[in-house]
Request: fold
Amino acid sequence: MNEKDRIQDGGAMHVMNGIEAQHDGMIASKRKRFVRKEKTYEIDEYYEEICEGSRLHLSKAITLLESRAEADQKAGQELLRRLLPKTGESIRIGITGVPGAGKSTFIESFGLKLAQAGHKVAVLAIDPSSTVTGGSILGDKTRMEALAKHPNAFIRPSPSSGTLGGVHKKTRETMLLCEAAGYDIILIETVGVGQSETVVRGMVDFFMLLVLTGAGDELQGMKKGIMELADCIIVHKADGDNLKLAKKTVREYRQLLHFLQPATPGWTTTALPVSSLKRTGFETVWETINVFRAEMKASGFWDERRQFQTKDWFHSLLRDQLIDRFFSKQGKKELVSHLEKQLLTGEMTVASAVDSILYDE
Ligand SMILES: Nc1nc2c(ncn2[C@@H]2O[C@H](COP(=O)(O)OP(=O)(O)O)[C@@H](O)[C@H]2O)c(=O)[nH]1
Ligand SMILES: [Mg+2]
Reply:
């Protein structure tokens, strides 16, 4: 790994807003200064470096896409447009489960195993507890330390700000950039906030739900909806004293799955025991994913789903931007709260309030 790549994610957290320039004069050779000036975007360089697999450039490109500055976003989108023909060649895997289910640990161990087997693994994670500069991003990164050090891996945590249903708005674009950089396995960790499971399900090929043992009561309370999004249920922490119970839980889930709608037509969702601590069960999980891919490609559903997902993403971004733009207009927020009051005092009907917002331009 070269020095450039070692700092991959350090660079990612900065918005690049300048280029390095030297002082002229006598001390020029020793001192460098970061000059804020007209930005230049070397799209050609980004393009080539990303195609070569440079993690530094990949990181910087993601930062461009995530930036609030219009010029950055434009450059990022232009880059993405050029890289688009190089995207799509990966398995996109979503991983969900309650906090503490062991998602990060699973991704670290499973990801490392795949990276060691020669796969290029990209991990995209939403950090729920962080603000923009939150320290917990570092917390999660340390937990994935072994994977982060592997030359075949790329880890990109995103702050939870700027999210759409609990998923970063740029996660989908980030995934495409990773594919262009040659990552053939994309792992997306999602936390159960807002609509995040549904949003992530809408951008991956294979979706896994991590659950814990002793689920007897939990099974009753578990949201059936979330189980119906999963292609595979992993009964996690199947080790030590927990092993026997884990096997029982697997059987319980398998029984229950008979009564649920499968997430993917033509696929039977299954339950598997895994321990990330002992690194057991990974082979079966990987095999399951591969059988899934082969069967879905053969049936045509693989491509069909991806096309549907692209269209769906287009519509949700469009909706999102329309709403953003609308409320960024002067006085709209105030008008809404004013109307809210009128609704509650019975001065106005809901339909006429909506009309007066939309047509009172
Ligand atoms: N016994 C056991 N503990 C685990 C396993 N995987 C994770 N853990 C522990 O579960 C806790 C939560 O793990 P974490 O990966 O942070 O969960 P997340 O919130 O779902 O990302 C940590 O203390 C882990 O050490 C496992 O396979 N076996
Ligand atoms: Mg986690």
About this structure: The radius of gyration is 23 Å. Residues 123 and 155 are 5 Å apart (CA to CA). The chain is about 50% helix and 15% strand.
